Amino acid sequence: MEDLIRDGGFIAYIALFLYSFGGGFVGLVIAGVLSYAGDLNIFLSMIIAGTSNFIGDQFLFYMARTNKTYANDVMKKYGRKVALAHVLMRRYGSSVVFIQKYIYGIKTLIPLAMGLTKYSFKKFTIYNGFAAIVWAIVVGYASYMMGEVVLTYFDEYKYYAVAFILAIILGVGYYFRKI
Protein backbone atom coordinates (compact mmCIF):
# COMPACT_ATOMS: atom_id res chain seq x y z
CA MET A 1 0.00 0.00 0.00
CA GLU A 2 2.89 2.37 0.74
CA ASP A 3 4.28 1.89 -2.79
CA LEU A 4 0.85 2.58 -4.24
CA ILE A 5 0.51 5.85 -2.33
CA ARG A 6 4.14 6.91 -2.90
CA ASP A 7 3.99 6.27 -6.65
CA GLY A 8 0.70 8.12 -7.11
CA GLY A 9 -1.27 5.02 -8.12
CA PHE A 10 -3.66 5.51 -5.22
CA ILE A 11 -4.61 8.92 -6.57
CA ALA A 12 -5.01 7.44 -10.06
CA TYR A 13 -7.45 4.83 -8.72
CA ILE A 14 -9.43 7.49 -6.85
CA ALA A 15 -9.57 9.63 -10.01
CA LEU A 16 -10.70 6.56 -12.00
CA PHE A 17 -13.46 5.88 -9.47
CA LEU A 18 -14.70 9.48 -9.54
CA TYR A 19 -14.53 9.72 -13.32
CA SER A 20 -16.27 6.37 -13.84
CA PHE A 21 -19.21 7.46 -11.71
CA GLY A 22 -20.44 9.53 -14.63
CA GLY A 23 -19.22 7.39 -17.50
CA GLY A 24 -15.64 6.31 -17.29
CA PHE A 25 -14.81 5.18 -20.81
CA VAL A 26 -11.86 7.51 -21.30
CA GLY A 27 -10.61 6.90 -17.75
CA LEU A 28 -10.68 3.13 -18.19
CA VAL A 29 -8.92 3.38 -21.55
CA ILE A 30 -6.13 5.42 -19.99
CA ALA A 31 -5.96 3.04 -17.01
CA GLY A 32 -5.70 0.10 -19.41
CA VAL A 33 -2.77 1.63 -21.28
CA LEU A 34 -1.06 2.59 -18.02
CA SER A 35 -1.68 -0.93 -16.71
CA TYR A 36 0.12 -2.39 -19.69
CA ALA A 37 2.99 0.00 -18.96
CA GLY A 38 3.12 -1.39 -15.42
CA ASP A 39 1.97 1.78 -13.68
CA LEU A 40 -1.47 0.43 -12.64
CA ASN A 41 -3.10 -2.97 -12.16
CA ILE A 42 -5.60 -3.79 -14.92
CA PHE A 43 -7.76 -6.03 -12.74
CA LEU A 44 -8.02 -3.42 -10.00
CA SER A 45 -8.73 -0.73 -12.61
CA MET A 46 -11.56 -2.79 -14.13
CA ILE A 47 -13.06 -3.50 -10.69
CA ILE A 48 -12.90 0.15 -9.65
CA ALA A 49 -14.28 1.50 -12.94
CA GLY A 50 -17.03 -1.14 -13.17
CA THR A 51 -18.12 -0.64 -9.57
CA SER A 52 -18.22 3.14 -9.91
CA ASN A 53 -20.05 2.93 -13.23
CA PHE A 54 -22.65 0.64 -11.65
CA ILE A 55 -23.13 2.95 -8.66
CA GLY A 56 -23.41 6.01 -10.90
CA ASP A 57 -26.15 4.49 -13.05
CA GLN A 58 -28.00 3.27 -9.97
CA PHE A 59 -27.82 6.77 -8.55
CA LEU A 60 -29.23 8.31 -11.74
CA PHE A 61 -32.05 5.77 -11.92
CA TYR A 62 -32.95 6.27 -8.26
CA MET A 63 -32.73 10.05 -8.54
CA ALA A 64 -35.12 10.05 -11.51
CA ARG A 65 -37.48 7.68 -9.71
CA THR A 66 -37.61 9.81 -6.57
CA ASN A 67 -37.26 13.31 -8.06
CA LYS A 68 -39.11 13.32 -11.38
CA THR A 69 -39.25 17.12 -11.65
CA TYR A 70 -35.48 17.50 -11.47
CA ALA A 71 -34.92 14.60 -13.89
CA ASN A 72 -37.36 16.10 -16.40
CA ASP A 73 -35.62 19.48 -16.12
CA VAL A 74 -32.23 17.88 -16.78
CA MET A 75 -33.55 15.91 -19.72
CA LYS A 76 -35.16 18.97 -21.36
CA LYS A 77 -31.67 20.31 -22.05
CA TYR A 78 -30.87 17.30 -24.25
CA GLY A 79 -33.87 17.10 -26.60
CA ARG A 80 -32.47 14.99 -29.48
CA LYS A 81 -30.45 12.75 -27.21
CA VAL A 82 -33.49 12.09 -25.02
CA ALA A 83 -35.47 11.22 -28.14
CA LEU A 84 -32.71 8.80 -29.15
CA ALA A 85 -32.75 7.30 -25.66
CA HIS A 86 -36.50 6.69 -25.91
CA VAL A 87 -36.17 5.14 -29.38
CA LEU A 88 -33.44 2.81 -28.09
CA MET A 89 -35.56 1.86 -25.06
CA ARG A 90 -38.54 1.00 -27.27
CA ARG A 91 -36.49 -0.87 -29.84
CA TYR A 92 -34.15 -2.85 -27.58
CA GLY A 93 -36.02 -3.03 -24.28
CA SER A 94 -33.90 -4.12 -21.32
CA SER A 95 -30.80 -4.69 -23.43
CA VAL A 96 -30.51 -0.90 -23.78
CA VAL A 97 -28.89 -1.00 -20.33
CA PHE A 98 -25.96 -2.86 -21.97
CA ILE A 99 -25.97 -0.76 -25.13
CA GLN A 100 -25.92 2.61 -23.36
CA LYS A 101 -22.58 1.90 -21.71
CA TYR A 102 -20.90 2.21 -25.12
CA ILE A 103 -22.76 5.16 -26.65
CA TYR A 104 -21.22 8.50 -25.84
CA GLY A 105 -23.71 11.23 -25.10
CA ILE A 106 -26.63 9.16 -23.86
CA LYS A 107 -24.89 7.08 -21.21
CA THR A 108 -26.31 9.21 -18.41
CA LEU A 109 -29.68 9.79 -20.05
CA ILE A 110 -30.79 6.15 -20.29
CA PRO A 111 -30.83 5.57 -16.50
CA LEU A 112 -32.67 8.87 -16.05
CA ALA A 113 -35.22 8.01 -18.74
CA MET A 114 -35.72 4.50 -17.35
CA GLY A 115 -36.12 5.91 -13.84
CA LEU A 116 -38.98 8.08 -15.07
CA THR A 117 -40.85 5.03 -16.38
CA LYS A 118 -42.36 2.16 -14.43
CA TYR A 119 -39.34 -0.02 -15.18
CA SER A 120 -38.55 -2.30 -12.24
CA PHE A 121 -35.76 -1.06 -9.96
CA LYS A 122 -34.74 -4.66 -9.21
CA LYS A 123 -34.60 -5.55 -12.90
CA PHE A 124 -32.57 -2.42 -13.66
CA THR A 125 -30.14 -3.29 -10.86
CA ILE A 126 -29.58 -6.80 -12.22
CA TYR A 127 -29.11 -5.67 -15.82
CA ASN A 128 -26.95 -2.74 -14.75
CA GLY A 129 -24.74 -5.03 -12.66
CA PHE A 130 -24.13 -7.41 -15.56
CA ALA A 131 -23.68 -4.53 -18.00
CA ALA A 132 -21.10 -2.81 -15.75
CA ILE A 133 -19.11 -6.04 -15.43
CA VAL A 134 -19.14 -6.68 -19.18
CA TRP A 135 -18.33 -3.04 -19.94
CA ALA A 136 -15.37 -3.00 -17.54
CA ILE A 137 -13.95 -6.25 -18.92
CA VAL A 138 -14.40 -5.34 -22.60
CA VAL A 139 -13.12 -1.77 -22.39
CA GLY A 140 -10.42 -2.60 -19.83
CA TYR A 141 -9.05 -5.60 -21.73
CA ALA A 142 -9.22 -3.84 -25.12
CA SER A 143 -7.38 -0.80 -23.79
CA TYR A 144 -4.81 -3.05 -22.09
CA MET A 145 -4.17 -4.74 -25.43
CA MET A 146 -4.07 -1.33 -27.11
CA GLY A 147 -1.33 -0.45 -24.63
CA GLU A 148 0.94 -2.96 -26.34
CA VAL A 149 0.53 -1.17 -29.66
CA VAL A 150 0.88 2.28 -28.15
CA LEU A 151 3.93 1.45 -26.07
CA THR A 152 5.64 -0.36 -28.92
CA TYR A 153 5.69 2.87 -30.90
CA PHE A 154 5.92 5.37 -28.05
CA ASP A 155 7.99 3.42 -25.51
CA GLU A 156 9.95 6.25 -23.99
CA TYR A 157 7.11 8.74 -24.52
CA LYS A 158 4.28 6.69 -23.00
CA TYR A 159 2.69 9.61 -21.18
CA TYR A 160 2.60 11.61 -24.40
CA ALA A 161 0.96 8.62 -26.06
CA VAL A 162 -1.71 8.51 -23.36
CA ALA A 163 -2.29 12.25 -23.81
CA PHE A 164 -2.52 11.74 -27.58
CA ILE A 165 -5.11 8.95 -27.17
CA LEU A 166 -7.05 11.11 -24.73
CA ALA A 167 -7.03 13.98 -27.24
CA ILE A 168 -8.36 11.69 -29.98
CA ILE A 169 -11.13 10.32 -27.75
CA LEU A 170 -12.12 13.80 -26.57
CA GLY A 171 -12.06 15.07 -30.17
CA VAL A 172 -14.37 12.28 -31.29
CA GLY A 173 -16.62 12.97 -28.30
CA TYR A 174 -16.73 16.67 -29.16
CA TYR A 175 -17.62 15.80 -32.75
CA PHE A 176 -20.51 13.56 -31.62
CA ARG A 177 -21.77 16.27 -29.26
CA LYS A 178 -22.04 18.69 -32.16
CA ILE A 179 -24.04 16.25 -34.31
Task: Summarize the SSE layout with pairings.
Layout: H1 2-6, H2 9-20, H3 25-36, H4 42-66, H5 68-76, H6 79-92, H7 96-99, H8 109-116, H9 121-153, H10 158-178
What does this entry look like structurally?
This protein has ten helices and no strands. It has 179 residues and is mostly helical. Helix 4 runs antiparallel to helix 9. It is elongated. Mean pLDDT is 81; it is low at 1-6.
Low-confidence stretches: 1-6
- Tally of helical runs: 10
Helix content: over 70%
Mean pLDDT: 81
Strands, count: 0
Shape: elongated
Please identify the structural class as seen in this structure: mainly alpha
SSE topology string: HHHHHHHHHH
- Rounded to the nearest angstrom, the radius of gyration is 17 Å
Q: How far is the N terminus from the C terminus?
A: 45 Å
Give the biggest beta sheet. Answer: none
Total domain units? 1
Q: In percent, how much strand structure appears in the residues? A: under 5%
